[in-house]
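Hello again, I could really use a second opinion on something today. I owe you a coffee for this, so here goes:
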Amino acid sequence: MKNPSLKFILAMALAIPFITFADVQPNALFADGMVIQRETQAPVWGTADAGEKVTVTGSWGESAATTADASGKWMVKLKTPKAGGPYTLTLQGNNKVEIKDVLSGEVWFCSGQSNMDFTMKQLSKASSKRTTAEHIPATNLIKKEMETAKDNHLRQFLVEKSISPLKPLRTLKGNWLDSSPQNNPVFSATAYFFARELRKELNVPVGLIKCAWGGTKVEPWMPAEAFQQNEEMSAYYKAKQKQVSTIFNAMVNPVIPYSIRGVIWYQGESNRDFNTLRYERHFSAMITAWRQLWGQGDFPFYFAQLANYQGRSRTNYEPPTAKPVEYDGWPSICDQQRRTLALKNTGMSVLSDIGEAKDVHAHNKIDVGKRLALWALKHDYKKDIPVCSGPLYKSHEIKGDQVIIQFDHVGSGLMAGSKFGMEATQETDEEMKYFQICGADRQWKWAQAKITAKDTVTVSHPEVPKPSVVRYAWSTNAKAANLYNKEGLPASIFTTEAEIFPQNDTDTLSKASKKKAPTTTLLKKDDRIVFLGDSITAAGIKKSGYITLSAEAIKKAYPELGVELIGAGKSGHKVPDCQARLERDVLQKKPTIVVIYIGINDVWHWALPKRGGKGLRKGTTPEKFESGLKDMIQKINASG
């Protein structure tokens, strides 16, 4: 006979998992060892049972209570004490949670890509192939600091890396660690040396929330709301929904609205060739949206301008400086960052003299931290600091053949200076370097520049009688640029152009997108277009390659023409290689149009080591490149 009581016990056991009693649980930021922003109304939040009463009490004598909503979410605002601790934070609902070793102090959100993400451990090592003698002392100092520093009042919360396409998350993973030889290796080096300056000057606890990810562009850090500023940005968001906002959704949104003093940011390297001339608009939109979502007003947002970097490879290649350039993505980003200073409560640390030619992750994060801290100490903590930035372009006036440029943040005045490693900047009697000037013809010349007043530089060139534009340090690695203020801070990259990317309407691109599709085309019926080039062209025939996409666009716009697109790309090929196969791969296909996409390997191979490591590969000389290209064009034209 079967036992009926056994069935009943089994049924009860099966039912138990479906009877849930949600414990009061705070967001992961509210944990042992946390730092809470001092002297404010700090949001504290988490989850519980729907309708459950939750009381939050600080051992400093303040408490606040609320009831969880229908989804189990709750939040209170708790008055926080003056700097000090340790305290205990108690959460009481159906259960009790005690958060111990709580400090009240200054909290900064530290974000960006690899130069914020790189840890003390990563920067405590030097590469014999990349790190020069000038930068070894910074490496040694970081290593010593990492192994010996101990400060229980300097703490970091590390937000784990994660993405979430489309959906903003509310929970995150991470933990608080204090500065100690055991924990220092995982601290952000940039954030650590920023915090160390605050600790020295303020003598209050400092909490860092590190939320950074190497190699990231600004767009994944932008919330969806940031893209709603105009039609062009909204269209961009709709087209890229699965790529943009992903990091914000998973890593930043769960931190909001944790009470902070402000943000420090180091990013931009990955935008040097991606949305470069949109960077200021995207970056400004991100800052504005973060502030709106945080609900703490226009909190301070201080960012690092990109440091000088050779930028093409990590081998024994020195960038050419023979003549000034029209376009370079690196200084373009730096100038876009400078323009972002138009936003209220922003500041920028100029780093054009602390970078490393062969390493994009410059070891001298000591000066990076100090220069970021100058902004906070002067503006947020009201310390008596004469100047917190290097000279920033303010205005210019053209008088005859001269351009008179006026600067802000000159401190005690302008000077020619030189900085070596971590050493203090030294005043020199050298002439001003790295100013370039052009007229309406855009023919750039290295300019003659002289300091003519405390805040003024006068620029000219004998071959430019009617100047129109002046630029300064417009290079990936303008190491020789030497304009400083007398406090030893370097001048920012700048151009006197009002806007490189017009902003007198909603957007040039959105304006163009509203135009009607052309009713005529230069393409003809049965045209055959052959694309000759290197690996980029070889990849162009893939599903998402530029040749395939071009073919699809032409077919959609002009289906009646029957235009054929053919790829003739070979990985690693240079101009001489294309010359050799022009007849076979191009002319024999009887094209009506030829597109040549070549040049990367001609330049890049000069910087790549040979297999086996002895010497460098051979690229193409400028003379051979020009003559080879002309030869191919001549043969293509001669073929009819």
